[in-house]
């Protein structure tokens, strides 16, 4: 049912001026064409609402990436040097910090 699941890839659908490029089949085959997609292509096939959503998601990804890096730099050494008596991978968890310490 490609006409139902990917209607913008078919020009015979009414109201579609420019058809979107068809994505390759495969488990993660869609990822590379997605990364090469420009905002102009998104605007011409899906509209300005989609461009705003893509920009919003990209901004969130950047902010969360910075926050994740910052938390790893601060929290992982804190948990690793805490004296909670745990070893192995559990040493890097919050349960390794003794209650009431600090």
Describe the structure.
The chain has helices spanning 2-5, 31-35, 39-46, 48-81. It is an all-alpha fold and 102 residues long. The longest helix has 34 residues, at 48-81.
Give a topology summary.
Blueprint: H1 2-5, H2 31-35, H3 39-46, H4 48-81
Helix pairs in contact: 3-4
Number of helices: 4
End-to-end gap: 60 Å
The strand count comes to: 0
Query: Which stretches are low in confidence, meaning pLDDT under 50 for 5 or more residues running?
Result: none
- As a whole number of angstroms, the C-alpha radius of gyration is 23 Å
Helix/strand order, N-terminal first: HHHH
Mean pLDDT: 81
Biggest beta sheet summary: none
Proportion of strand residues: under 5%
**What proportion of the residues is helical, as a percent range?**
40-55%
Core attributes:
102 residues, 50% helix, single chain, 4 helices, mainly alpha
Question: What is the gist of this entry?
Answer:
The protein is an all-alpha fold.
């Amino acid at each position: 049912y490609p006409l139902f699941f990917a209607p913008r890839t078919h020009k015979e659908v009414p109201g579609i001026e420019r058809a979107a490029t068809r994505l390759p089949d495969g488990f993660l085959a869609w990822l590379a064409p997605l990364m090469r997609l420009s905002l102009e292509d998104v605007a011409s096939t899906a509209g300005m609402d989609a461009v705003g959503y893509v920009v919003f998601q990209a901004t969130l990804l950047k902010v969360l990436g910075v926050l994740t890096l910052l938390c790893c730099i601060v929290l992982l050494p804190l948990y690793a040097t805490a004296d909670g008596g745990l070893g192995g991978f559990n040493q890097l968890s919050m349960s390794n910090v003794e209650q009431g310490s600090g």
